[in-house]
Every structure is written in structure tokens, then in C-alpha cells.
Write a structure and sequence with these properties.
heterotrimer, A: mainly alpha, Non-ribosomal Peptide Synthetase Peptidyl Carrier Protein, Chain A, 61% helix, C: mainly alpha
Chain lengths: 79, 315, 479
């Protein structure tokens, strides 16, 4: 899948989990930039992402996600 | 880096000077004994007032006596000189103003563990024999005494040093303190304080157990344990009635009698009815203290109700 | 050796002098020696335990890194975790589990008496155990390379500023610092000393002073009226903040003087308006550790259950945190209270946010103040379980007394209350200014050297006058 397609599917997921209808995704986006994105909602995000893309993350991979860019890369590697 | 070290040395120099002063002036006779009687009097009125227990414990360590007096401000008025007048015996009075039974107990165990005692006089009253007076000011004093750095960094040492320094620099002697109240005002104030103690009175199970331990220890080690209830003015004595604590007062006395001999001066008589015999409702004047000590040492109770130790009412 | 003992006041400058005079490459060796000397001054035998944990950690980290298969790595990790936790479990929880088993057997009719053990808990074991586990797990997760230099690993686990009571550090933060070139930096030295000075104020003037009242009341529960118990309970959070917060500052400052940056542990916790925020400001190194190594794996495992999975993970994590604090049921209850509070906050967050948006509450000072007060009260309530009494029934007994016996004036201890109040006010004002008006008042940080030095002298004076100097009286000590 192309990166733009991933972002297209990912954006509504982010918007839903963090309750922000105007959120735009960039590669450098991190939890510090988004209100309501903390360790509690992070796991909800992960579960939703897994659902949407029908993939399964591994715990080790979570640690490697420093920003949205990393997440997209890992998603891409699983598709 | 050396620049920085120089700065640090300058920063700590005031503390070095302070420590030097504390050692030289030595308000509590910690490092040296005090031979000069004028200085001794000065230290007594300045340093001892700041921390009576620290001062007296150090004094005891320098010149241990076989007889000691413990208790609160009433017991404090049983001056060592009055004892010496009667039978030449050297006595040390380690009582302190607002002293609690907790203080008495702590001092007892500290001293008896280090020296063989002959006689221990404990001044006591129902205000002290109460579950609400639990403060322990002796343990911190003992800790300070046993640790040079603690002693040097202590606020009592600091303040006493400064006061003594000021006295020496301006050639001041011991001044009589001018009380901020009139005699009548203070009289009323002391009555209110007594009411406060009695209002909050609860039976002190902890003190019962602790005094029992002391009593047993004294019996085993042949130490004479004598309790003294100092006389208070009848106006104050009546407060016990007022607060309906008569039963508790009798129980208090029965407890004390089970621990040791008791000289109870605190009952309505010629002495206690006259205000002239008192500085304030709680504290009698020196001549009364002399009478008390004479009666106790010679065991000729006249103004005292004497009860020999009796364990017939063991709880 | 404790930070508030005179031995330390001699030890630390001595260590500093040698440390900065030594050439760079010997410094970490010297620190290792000094750290073990420091630790041996508590109870020598337990240094063997620390060394043992260090050896296992060092060995297994290297093995895990070398292992080829995922399966082998995981096996090694599990073995290491079990071995590392064994001493902690043994010293801390043996009696607790013992009693539990005994009670169960009793119910089954078998009155077997299992032997009780009374060992003193080795100092710092809860802290260095967690640090060791964190390192090995990080190696397993490939977040850090296994360290080949045994001395560095040994220094990490015994580093004297943090070994006794934290902050709980990470290998990824400390290893590079231990190996780097440390120049004498007078700015860092001054900054570190400032932190230490303030830490001493918090510990000696606030915590130790309040402890006199709190301990007097709670050591004699039945002799005091309910209002005293209430007052003492309300003082507890401040006491713990002064104690652990102060001690942490001394640790962090101490490390800073030597050129090391250690993670902060407290961030003005009483200005949190929710429990969630509170736990981002209180004992941060512990929470970070629990989040990374307990909460995240748990929440990951339960992620299919959505918010309920998160709530479960939260509660389990905080119950474990409770267990880390103490081996008794009341600590677990303390943990559960935090878990429940956080879960409730999480589940109601969107509704709360909407409510606050609607009335624009977040900017109203009184709303913020109510939030702070409620959070404080909730934490004070939970502390009754986590460190006041020894058993749950005792805690309820105290609550009962508070509810039924509070119509009298509380126990009054003039000096203690006055000095405690003054000390706490100073602490509060400082935190308040830093929280809402940062940079407005500069004392320690003032450009003028006279102002700075006067402030130092003032604080030292306050420590002497308001503070208590009886050495070893530190609440988190038996960890």
C-alpha cells in the first residue's frame, strides 16, 4: 500500500480516538503535539489501527514508534 | 576550579567563626567546665533557660550526684542548696518548666543506666499524670548532647552563644526579668492553664505502665523512689472539684503510692490557704520549698500527708 | 550512611575533591568504590546481595544480546527476571505470603505453622532491583546495547546518590554519562548544591518537623481525639512530599554536582487538578518505570477490550505499585484506590472535557483550586492505607474515630505546629510561584551574587531554626 493510502485510512482513526475532527497527520507528529494523546489513549489508538489495517503489532515495535512517521513505516512493513 | 573553591571557603567562613565562638564561649559547658562563678550564674540564667535538659544533663555528666530531683516547674523550685542546708547532701535538680512525665521517665532511664542512684525524687501532679501530656524534650537533648556536630549546629547553642557574647561585650550581669503581666493577671492566667489541663484530662495507661517499670527497677536496685506533690494554692486545688475529677485524683494518688513513697503537700492547710506563700497559684515560695525538703529528708511530715509505698490496690 | 547524617557531610566533599582531581579515565572506578563504601556503611552483608544482582544482570544482558532466536531471548529474559526478583520477594514478601498460605491452610483444617523470617530489608533493594530489571528488559527490547564493561553496570546499580531511594534511573540515561568526559563545571556544581540545599530544607524543616506531630498521633491512636487523627492524616501528603521529594532533590543535586543529569522525581504535585495529573507529578521515576515495564505490556495485552482493558491494566499496575511500597494488604488497597480513581477519570474524561468546555471552567482560578484541593484530599485519604496504619482494620478504626470523635480540639503541639506551618508555607509559596508565575521572583537564580548568597544563608538559617536534626528518620527507607 502506498504511504498516502495509509495516511488516508489512518487520519480518521486518529481523529476518532483523540476527539479532534481537524487533526492533520505529519511524520513528526508525536503525543506531545496532540491533546488527549497519552499512555492511556495510546493503547486505544493501537487497537484501532490494528483493526483498521487488519494487522497485529508486536510489543517491541511499540517502543520503536517515536512519531507518526515511524508508525506509518511499521504499518507499511506489515502490509 | 580553584576560583570556585575560594568562593566556597569565603561562603563557609561565617560558619567557621560561629563554631569557634561556640567552643570558646561554651554556653552549656560542653567542652570545658566553668570555674568562674559569675560566668556560671550568667550561663545558668541564659543557656539553661534555653534548654534546661541539655544544660542539666551535661552538668550531671560532669558532676554526677547520687540523688536527683525530676519533674516540672514545681519540682524545679526544690533547689539543691536547700538539700545541702539540711544534711550536706549534694543533689542535682533536673526538673524543667513544662516538663512532662515522658521527660521524667526518659531522664530516669538515661541516668540510671550510667550511674548507681541512691534516691530519686519525682515531683508530680494530676496535670502531668494525664494521657494528653506526651511531649518528649529529653530525647532530643540527649541526642544533641551525644553528638558534637549536632551540638554545634543546634539553635539553643547558637542563641545562648550570642546572648552570652552580648553579655560579655557589654559587661552585663544577670538581670531580673521584668514580667509582662501583673501578679494578679498572672495569677488568673495560671488558673486558666490549670483548667485547660483538667478539661483535657484522660487516664494515662501508658504512664501507669512506665512508672510501674521504674518502681520495680528501683525496688530491685535498692533505689529510694519518692514522689512529691508540691503545694498549690487552695483556689487551684478547688479546680479538681470544679471539674469533678475527685475520683480520678484519688486514683492518681493510689497509683503513685503503689509505685513509691508519697509526700503530698497539696491539701488545704495554713500554708496553702495564704496567697503570700505563693508566686502564683501553682508555685510556692522558697521558704515553703525549704520546709518541704526538711520534712522529707528528716521524715517528719507535718505539712505533708505521708504515705508509705503500698501495693494493696494493684490494677 | 544517610544524606542527613554528618558522615555524609564529610563523605561527600571528600569524594568530590578526589573525583575532580582524578584524571578522567579513573573517575568512574573511583565512583564505584565510593558508592560501595557508601552502601557498606548501611549494612555490609547486603552489599553482597547488591553485587550478586549486579553479576546476574550483567551476565544475562550480554547473553540475551548474543542469543540468536527470539525464543531463546525470551527464555533468558524470564529466567533473569525471576532470579532478580527472588531476593526482593524473599526479603519483602515472604512473611506476607507465608501468612496468606497459613490462613488458607487454616481454613482447610490444616493448622500448619510455617516458619516466620525476620530480616531487615536490605536498603535500596526495591530501587536497584527495578533499575536492574529495566536495563535487561531494555536490552531485550533492543532499546540499548548490552554493556560489556562490568564496572559500568556495577556503578549504575550502586551509584550512591540514587541507590538508597531513587530516583529510579535508566541505563540508557546513565551509561553514556558514566562513560563520557566530565569537566568541572562550576555552573552545574552550584546548581547541584542549590538543589541539595532545598532538598535538605524540605526534608529537615518540613518533613521531619511534621513527622513529630504525625507520629505522636499515629503511634498512640487511642489516646488522641478524632480531630487529631484527621489533622495528622491531612498532613501526611505534605510530610511524604517533604521526605521523598526532599531526599530526591538531594540525590539529584548530589549527582549534578558531579556532572550527572538524573531524572527528576517530583514536579509540584499538589498543583495537579486530577489524579491523572497528580501521578504525572508525583514520584515520576517510579511511574515512568511502571508505565514502561508494567502498564504498557499489560495494556497491550488487554487492548482488545478497549477502555476496560486499559482500566484493568491501570488497576493491576497500581496494585503492583502498592505492593512495591509495602508487603501488606493495606498497601494493595492504597494501590487499588489510585487505579480506581484513574480508571474513573479515564472513563469520564470526554464528558468532563465537554462540561469544562461549555462553561469555560479550565481558566477559572476557583475551579483549578477546587481540583487541587479535591485531588489532595483523595490522595490524603489513600495515604491512610499506604503508610499510616499497619493493617486494613486499623485504618477503618481510624476512620471510625475521625467520623465519631471529631468535636474536640485536636492535640496541640505549639512549637511543632508553628514551625511546621512556617516551613510548609515557605515551601508552598515557592512551588506556587514556580507553578503560576515562573521567573517572577528569582532568589537562588538571581544574577546578583549578594541576593543569591543571602538566600542561601537564609535557607540555611531556616533549616537550623525550623529543622529537626535526628538523622535517620526517612519514610521510604525500608525500600
Amino acid at each position: 500500500m502506498e504511504k498516502e493510502e495509509i495516511v488516508k485510512i489512518l487520519t480518521p482513526v486518529f481523529r476518532k480516538v483523540f476527539g479532534d475532527k481537524t487533526l492533520e497527520l505529519t511524520d513528526q507528529l508525536t503525543a506531545l503535539d496532540v491533546e488527549n494523546w497519552d499512555s492511556l489513549s495510546h493503547m486505544l489508538l493501537i487497537a484501532e489501527v490494528e483493526n483498521q489495517f487488519s494487522i497485529k503489532f508486536r510489543l517491541k515495535e511499540l517502543n520503536k514508534m517515536a512519531n507518526v512517521g515511524d508508525m506509518i513505516a511499521i504499518i507499511s512493513s506489515k502490509l | 576550579m580553584w576560583n570556585f573553591i575560594k568562593k566556597i571557603l569565603i561562603f563557609i567562613s561565617p560558619f567557621i567563626i560561629l563554631i569557634a565562638l561556640e567552643v570558646i564561649i561554651d554556653p552549656f559547658n560542653y567542652f570545658f567546665g566553668e570555674k568562674n562563678p559569675a560566668q556560671l550564674e550568667l550561663k545558668n540564667s541564659l543557656a539553661r533557660k534555653k534548654n534546661t535538659y541539655l544544660y542539666r544533663l551535661i552538668e550531671y555528666e560532669r558532676n554526677p550526684t547520687k540523688t536527683i530531683v525530676l519533674g516540672d516547674s514545681r519540682a524545679q523550685r526544690l533547689m539543691p542548696d536547700f538539700f545541702t542546708e539540711v544534711n550536706g547532701e549534694k543533689v542535682l535538680n533536673l526538673a524543667a518548666g513544662a516538663g512532662s512525665l515522658q521527660d521524667v521517665i526518659k531522664i530516669f532511664w538515661d541516668l540510671s543506666s550510667r550511674n548507681k542512684l541512691d534516691t530519686v525524687y519525682i515531683g508530680i501532679g494530676i496535670e502531668g499524670y494525664s494521657g494528653t501530656l506526651l511531649k518528649d524534650r529529653v530525647s532530643p537533648a540527649i541526642e544533641v548532647k551525644n553528638s558534637i556536630p549536632l551540638y554545634l549546629m543546634n539553635k539553643f547553642t547558637l542563641e545562648s552563644t550570642m546572648l552570652l557574647l552580648k553579655a560579655r561585650l557589654f559587661n552585663q550581669g544577670v538581670e531580673a526579668a521584668n514580667p509582662p503581666f501583673s501578679r494578679e493577671q498572672f495569677w488568673q492566667y495560671e488558673l486558666r492553664e490549670e483548667e485547660r489541663y483538667l478539661r483535657n484530662y484522660t487516664y494515662p495507661k501508658n504512664y501507669y505502665n512506665e512508672l510501674k517499670k521504674i518502681s520495680e527497677y528501683c525496688a530491685e536496685n535498692k533505689i529510694k523512689l519518692i514522689f512529691i506533690i508540691s503545694p498549690t494554692h487552695t483556689e487551684l486545688q478547688n479546680k479538681v472539684n470544679e471539674f469533678k475529677l475527685n475520683r480520678e485524683y484519688e486514683r492518681f494518688k493510689a497509683d503513685i503510692i503503689s509505685f513509691g513513697d508519697l509526700y503530698d503537700f497539696n491539701w488545704p492547710n495554713v500554708i496553702t490557704e495564704k496567697k503570700n506563700n505563693f508566686l502564683d497559684p501553682l508555685h510556692s515560695i522558697d521558704s515553703v520549698s525549704r520546709i518541704m525538703i526538711k520534712e522529707i529528708i528528716l521524715n517528719k511530715p507535718e505539712y505533708a500527708k505521708y504515705s508509705k509505698q503500698s501495693t494493696t490496690n494493684i490494677k | 550512611m544517610v544524606f542527613t547524617s554528618f558522615n555524609f557531610l564529610i563523605f561527600f566533599p571528600a569524594v568530590l575533591v578526589v573525583y575532580f582531581l582524578l584524571p578522567q579515565k579513573f573517575r568512574w572506578v573511583f565512583l564505584l568504590v565510593a558508592s560501595y563504601y557508601f552502601y557498606l556503611n548501611t549494612k555490609p552483608v547486603y552489599a553482597l546481595l547488591l553485587a550478586g544482582v549486579t553479576l546476574t544482570t550483567y551476565f544475562f544482558a550480554l547473553q540475551i544480546q548474543k542469543a540468536k532466536s527470539e525464543k531463546k531471548k525470551r527464555q533468558l529474559l524470564i529466567i533473569d527476571v525471576v532470579i532478580t526478583l527472588l531476593p526482593l520477594f524473599f526479603f519483602k514478601y515472604f512473611n506476607f505470603v507465608n501468612e496468606g498460605i497459613f490462613t488458607l491452610l487454616n481454613y482447610a483444617g490444616l493448622g500448619l505453622a510455617l516458619p516466620q523470617i525476620s530480616f531487615l530489608l536490605p536498603v535500596g533493594i526495591s530501587f536497584y532491583t527495578f533499575m536492574a530489571l529495566g536495563y535487561v528488559i531494555d536490552v531485550y527490547n533492543e532499546d540499548i546495547d548490552a554493556e560489556e564493561n562490568f564496572g559500568i553496570v556495577a556503578l549504575f546499580l550502586s551509584f550512591f546518590p540514587v541507590v538508597m531511594s531513587g530516583p529510579i534511573e535508566r541505563a540508557s540515561n546513565m551509561f553514556p554519562q558514566f562513560k563520557s568526559k566530565i569537566q568541572f563545571n562550576s555552573g552545574m556544581v552550584v546548581s547541584g548544591l542549590q538543589l541539595m540545599l532545598w532538598g535538605y530544607f524540605m526534608k529537615l524543616a518540613v518533613a521531619d518537623r511534621l513527622s513529630i506531630y504525625i507520629d505522636a498521633v499515629f503511634n498512640n491512636v487511642d489516646q488522641h481525639v478524632g480531630s487529631s487523627l484527621l489533622l495528622a492524616s491531612l498532613m501526611q501528603p505534605i510530610r511524604v512530599y517533604g521526605d521523598l521529594g526532599g531526599y530526591s532533590l538531594i540525590a539529584i543535586g548530589c549527582a549534578k554536582v558531579m556532572g550527572f543529569n538524573v531524572i527528576p522525581n517530583f514536579n509540584r504535585p499538589f498543583f495537579a487538578t486530577t489524579m491523572s495529573e497528580f501521578w504525572r507529578r508525583w514520584h515520576m521515576s517510579l511511574i515512568q518505570w511502571l508505565t514502561d515495564y508494567v502498564y504498557t505490556p499489560l495494556a497491550f495485552t488487554f487492548r482488545k477490550w478497549g477502555v476496560w482493558g486499559i482500566a484493568l491494566a491501570l488497576n493491576l499496575t497500581f496494585i503492583i505499585s502498592g505492593a512495591w511500597h509495602g508487603a501488606a494488604l493495606n498497601y494493595l488497597v492504597w494501590g487499588a484506590i489510585q487505579g480506581i480513581a484513574l480508571s474513573v477519570e479515564m472513563l469520564t474524561r470526554s464528558k468532563k472535557d465537554a462540561f469544562e468546555e461549555r462553561f469555560n471552567l479550565k481558566t477559572r482560578w476557583w475551579y483549578i483550586m477546587i481540583g487541587c484541593v479535591l485531588t489532595y484530599l483523595l490522595f490524603a485519604f489513600s495515604l491512610s492505607f499506604g503508610g499510616t496504619a499497619d493493617t486494613v482494620p486499623e485504618v477503618f478504626h481510624i476512620f471510625g474515630r475521625i467520623l465519631t470523635d471529631s468535636l474536640h480540639w485536636p492535640y496541640k503541639d505549639g512549637d511543632t505546629m508553628l514551625y511546621g506551618f512556617i516551613a510548609f508555607s515557605i515551601l508552598f509559596i515557592k512551588d506556587f510561584m514556580e507553578e503560576y508565575y515562573p521567573g517572577r521572583i528569582r532568589l537562588f537564580g538571581n544574577e546578583n551574587i549578594t541576593v543569591r548568597w543571602l538566600s542561601y544563608y537564609c535557607v540555611i538559617f531556616l533549616i537550623f531554626y525550623l529543622g529537626i536534626f535526628s538523622g535517620e528518620n526517612f519514610v521510604y527507607f525500608q525500600f
